[in-house]
Design goal:
This protein is an all-alpha fold. The protein contains eight helices and no strands. It has two domains: about 80 residues, RNA polymerase sigma factor, region 2, helix turn helix motif (Rna Polymerase Sigma Factor, Chain: A, Orthogonal Bundle); about 100 residues, Orthogonal Bundle (Arc Repressor Mutant, subunit A). The longest helix is centred in the middle third of the chain and has 35 residues. The radius of gyration is 23 Å and the shape is elongated.
Length: about 200
């Protein structure tokens, strides 16, 4: 008698994964239904609330189904899903930490040297971040630095920045994004964080 564990006749986990890898929508839906409850429960331990856990679970399944060719079956599908969820959560944690460092640096830059008089670790970290940001800005080409200062620091609307510079707003946005990426990389390097692939 055929096993019907996953809703498809003869469907053990390896068969389901093989079918899903080949694009079978029923197999993907079946894998999702079987594993979503456990993944949501585990995701709640990794993030702050139920909404974030649901988002993480959805991102995990999207990543899993996109990269099913990587699943070699050395661990269970559930374990593989959890590894993906954990990696996504770690990526989110690092991104949040970088954003906080980035915002601290710009808060310090906007507030002047007042932070230097504080002896708290947070102020010292912000001062260090600000120095890294200043050095990174100094290393940018004039075009990138100009776009970054106008759009990111001065927060001018794109159309207004375009009028100031005589450069199209879309071009300025691309330049500001490139500049931001370089500044963020400088902050990651200064903090000894891994470079993202």
């Amino acid at each position: 008698m055929a096993i019907r564990a996953y809703g498809v006749p003869g469907g053990d986990e390896a068969t389901q994964v093989a079918l899903a890898r080949g694009g079978d929508a029923r197999a993907r839906e079946s894998l999702y239904r079987i594993h979503v409850g456990d993944l949501l429960r585990r995701a709640r331990f990794l993030v702050r609330d139920a909404a974030e856990a649901e988002d993480l679970a959805q991102e995990t399944f999207a990543a899993a189904f996109t990269s099913l060719w990587r699943f070699r079956g050395e661990a269970s599908f559930a374990t593989w899903l959890y590894r993906i969820a954990l990696n996504l959560a770690r990526h989110q944690w690092r991104a949040k930490a970088r954003r906080r460092a980035f915002l601290r640096a710009f808060t310090w830059l906007a507030g002047g040297a007042a932070a230097e008089t504080s002896t708290t670790d947070g102020a010292a970290d912000a001062a260090d971040d600000a120095r890294v940001v200043q050095e990174a800005l100094a290393g940018l080409s004039p075009k990138l630095r100009e776009a970054f200062v106008l759009l990111a620091l001065e927060r001018l609307p794109g159309d207004e920045a375009a009028k100031v510079t005589g450069v199209r707003a879309e071009v300025l946005r691309v330049r500001a994004t490139r500049a931001r990426m370089r500044v963020q990389q400088a902050l990651r390097t200064a903090r000894g964080e891994e470079e993202e692939s």
